[in-house]
Amino acid sequence: MIHAKPKPIQEHGWQAELRAASLDASELLETLGLPADLAVPTDGFPLRVPAGFVARMRPGDPHDPLLRQVLPAAAEHAQVPGFCSDPCGDLDAIAAPGLLQKYRGRALLVTTGACAVHCRYCFRRGFPYADQADVDPERLANSLAALSDVDELILSGGDPLTLSDRRLAALITAAESVPRLCRLRLHTRVPVVLPARITETLCARLEASRLDVVVVIHANHPNELDDAVVAALAQLRAHGTTLLNQAVLLRGINDDVESLATLSTRLFAAGVLPYYLHMLDRAAGTAHFEVPASRARVLHRTLAARLPGYLVPRLVREVPGADSKQSLDGTLGQP
After folding, report:
1. In angstroms, rounded to a whole number, what is the distance separating the alpha carbons of residues 74 and 289?
2. Which of 60, 193, 57, 168 is nearest to 118 (CA)?
3. HSE on the CB side for 159, CA within 13 Å?
4. Are strands 242-248 and 314-317 parallel, antiparallel or unpaired?
5. HEC secondary structure over 85-145
6. Rounded distance, CA 73 to CA 69, Å?
7. Is 299:259 a contact under the CB 8 Å cutoff?
8. In the CATH scheme, what architecture does the domain 91-327 have?
9. pLDDT per residue as tens digits for the range 233-274
10. Contacts of residue 120, Cβ cutoff 8 Å, sequence gap at least 6
């Protein structure tokens, strides 16, 4: 009996690029013409960065703002009081497997533990994804059935856009089956670090949804926004998607008015409204990125004096157990 060979699963270009992402700090440093001794052990949170993002880094500059976001540093191993594995209270907010509900009217679905890039300041670097990110159809149905008083579902992770078109479409279809839901929000860094992922198939599925779709991207520095990213964002906009940006205020990376102002203006030119400027979530291993609140307020006031109000993101901090994100700029920031 002759058995037919199974057809290979077709891999899209963005998936090949994701699979080829750099996982080795020494190789990354060599690519940038930097000494290999800048590499340090990662202690369970490995380096991961796509080649397209590396291409935007300045060769020979160990202080490049994009490199510093992804290169493991010795400071990550420091034990600093107040920094912990669950800085945002995610574990206490679990309402059902993979489903977090912190605020009235919104719930967040942890769709995957995978990201296209590993940001060293990540607040979920210690999250138990093995227990919470398995969204098989039965488990997903049970989680969505647990929704109460919710009209907006947030797809997060990890990064939901690392999922295949098939899996992502299944998630969207499941969300559309919940009568009360009227908005779908995707929190993703993929359009910035892997713009090839923004395909016509993806955009068409988002546009076809009965839900109002909001894509919240994550860019911290204007150098992240190259022509490929701008084109990907334009494609999303052309299909009716609302685009917002949330950034994290990071010491030595974007804690200066020039970087923040340029980021806001470039985002707006690309059709993205600056939404949040987050204070660092105090995850273990990230203390070296923290900007003091007093300095953050000064930066934000200076930014507000320089730009029109619609280009000034809200300066906020997430406080576990609070009923909204807490504003540091004198206004109430809603999640």
Report:
1. 13
2. 193
3. 22
4. unpaired
5. CCCCCCHHHEEECCEECCCCEEEEEECCCCCCCCCCCCCCCCCCHHHHCCCCHHHHHHHHH
6. 10
7. no
8. Alpha-Beta Barrel (3.20)
9. 999 999 999 999 999 999 999 999 999 999 999 999 999 999
10. 45, 68, 69, 70, 71, 72, 73, 76, 285, 286, 289
pLDDT digits (tens, 9 = 90+) for 213-231: 999 999 999 999 999 999 9
**DSSP state for residue 62 in the 8-state scheme:** T
How far CA 334 is from CA of 105, 276, 296, 318, 324, in Å, comes to 11, 10, 19, 10, 6
User: What are the tokens at 147?
Assistant: 């929704």
134 pLDDT band, cuts 50/70/90, is: low
Rounded to whole angstroms, the Cα distance separating 64 from 253 reads 8
Give residue 223's identity as a one-letter amino acid code: N
Give the tokens for residue 292.
């003091």
Cβ proximity of 323 and 283 under 8 Å: no
Q: How many CB atoms lie within 10 A of CB 256?
A: 12
Q: How do strand 99-100 and strand 183-187 relate by DSSP bridges?
A: unpaired
Please give the Cα distance from 152 to 299 (Å, whole number): 32
**Residue that is written with structure tokens 């690309």 in the block:** 270
* Maximum Cα–Cα distance across the chain: 77
- Two tokens at 112? 């995957």
- CA–CA dist 195, 258 (Å, integer): 25
- Listed residue (92, 48, 75) closest to 284, CA to CA: 75
Task: Give the contacts of 287 (CB within 8 A, at least 6 positions apart).
Answer: 75, 78, 80, 83
Per the structure block, which two tokens stand in for 191? 């359009």
